[in-house]
Amino acid sequence: MKCQFHSTQELSDFLKDQLLSASETAEILEVSTNRVGHMVRDGKLDTVKEQPKMFLKEVVLEKKKELEQLRKKYRPYDE
């Protein structure tokens, strides 16, 4: 994804929309914030900023699809 901003306001709006905190990420992925930390440590989820942990929405949504497929495969009884 390549973006170009013509004003600070455009950049600010983009960041507000595209950056997620660890707790927002946990909510989207339907896991605990501790699990998000483990995923980062294990290299399964990349951060944009380490402290506080920030994530790109696009990356989190891709991970959500992956986790949903794994849940269907390994926990079919949850459906």
Structure, described:
- The structure is a single chain.
- The protein has helices spanning 8-18, 22-29, 33-41, 57-74, and strands at 19-21, 54-56.
- By secondary structure, it is mostly helical.
- The chain starts with 7 loop residues before the first helix and ends in a 5-residue tail after the last helix.
- 58% of the residues lie in helices and 8% in strands.
- Helix 2 (22-29) packs across helix 3.
- The model has no long low-confidence stretch (mean pLDDT 91).
- It has one domain.
- The protein has a two-stranded antiparallel ribbon.
- This is BH3463 protein.
- It comes from Halalkalibacterium halodurans (strain ATCC BAA-125 / DSM 18197 / FERM 7344 / JCM 9153 / C-125) (Bacillus halodurans).
Shape: elongated
Order of helices and strands: HEHHEH
Distance between the termini: 34 Å
Sequence of strands across the biggest β-sheet: 1-2
What is the tally of beta strands?
A: 2
Mean pLDDT: 91
Number of domains: 1
Helix content: 55-70%
Query: Biggest sheet, open or closed, and with what strands and sense?
Result: 2 strands, antiparallel
Residue ranges: pLDDT <50 for 5 or more in a row?
none
Q: How large is the share of residues in beta strands?
A: 5-15%
Roughly how many Å is the radius of gyration?
Answer: 15 Å
Protein name: BH3463 protein
